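Here is a typical sample entry:
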Amino acid sequence: MLKRISVVALAGLLSLPGLAMAADSDHVADLEKQMAEMNKMFNAKMQAMQDEIATLKAKNAAAPATETTSGAAATPGAAPADEWAKRVSLGGQVTFRGYNLQNVWDFNDEVDSDNWDTFRLKGSLKATVKATDDVTAVVQLTDQTYGENTGVGDNVDNKIFLDNAYIEARNLFGVPVDGTFGRQNLIYGSGFVVLDGQSQFASTSIYFDGIKLRWHLTDTMTLDGLYMKDQENQRANDADGNTTPDNRGDDITLSGAYFTSNKCPMVGKSELYILNRNDEYFGKDIWMYGARVSNKLENGFDYSLEGAIQRGDANRTLDQDAFGYKLDGGYTVKAVSMTPRFYLGYAFMSGDENASDQESNQWDVFYGGWPQFGDLMAWKYLNLPSTANSLKGVYSGYNAYSNVIGEAIYSNFSIATLGASANLLKNFSVNLSYSLLTFDEVAAGMDDDFGDYYQTTLKYQYNKQLSFSLYAALLSPGDAFKFSADAPMDDATEAYWETEYKF
């Protein structure tokens, strides 16, 4: 291009003497016309050269790096260091709680072993790498402890564990299917059936290991396919898997499909699911079929309605035939500056109607465990059969089909809730609730009154990242635990303050 421009310019210069000799008053106009045309051509050539230079710069910037700044050969296709910095983002959280817990395991003030006064500290660091527009990798490391030098499993102050580690690839095989591969959290709906995959660690972590494929049917409809491991304590399984407990496989697997429509006519959001929970140790193979609808209306009303049935094998000898549902509704007064919301809720998980038949009617919690109704409720339900105030004579075998230590196995249980929340001041909110707890099935002559459950939360959102909270809960035992005239009936309580920073 430069050569072409130079030739044109040189030709113009050489022609100037001849033009000057031939110039007279009759030829001035012709000369001016020729000069104007030459100037126009020269400007066009210069613009073409500038356009070509810009194109070459753009191609050079997009080309794979072939040499590092030190002169060594670079990996073909590797992005410069500053490009990688743009693709990597860091996040995480620091949560610090001061706890006071009374009668966590029983309803007896005379027993102090379940009275706790401790700090709970959780820290997580999350790195997200957006390798390309369609490929993302995530790694999150976490540590949580209840006090120094205490705890087991993941609740130990000197143990940092792999909380999340997964690769997300979009548009697999050129079709609208996204795949998530690795250790990941799963939460569907309000968490009634899928929320906590690691309940034995008291909500320290909620991950599953496995594969999720999400098919984008339309802009508003998706279908997820799941294959997840909840537990895999030993890799080898015995050939027959049934002879003795030591030789059985111990895997617990969640699989199935979950459909979501975000803009369903008349109901807003709708969800349909078919899920399977398979426990090799017990021979549990339960299929759950469920549906959920939810919406927030412009007039201030909101609702969530979910129900499911369970069929299959409760264990190697009992069939599963159970059902459960969770209903929530509320109204927000938008005309008031504090925007108070009043709400009602009811959750039900069936119990066994006849312990002597070959059928189990008790709800299997699947993965709706620890966080669902609060820590105090989970701790209490976890320990009910093994304390002096046990459910013996009421419902002693509700956890007979789980070998996961620490699993809050809600069944034979209903919780009716009345509550209100409001923004008292800017960035300062409050939530109050009362719940009536009852058992579904009880032995003859026994009361079904589980008790009364009160919860209060105050939260101050200091800024987008930092918040401060106060929480208190009280569980007052009902007549179901009054096995004798002198049976202890003391309240169980939980209180904590919390400082949390998310980044």
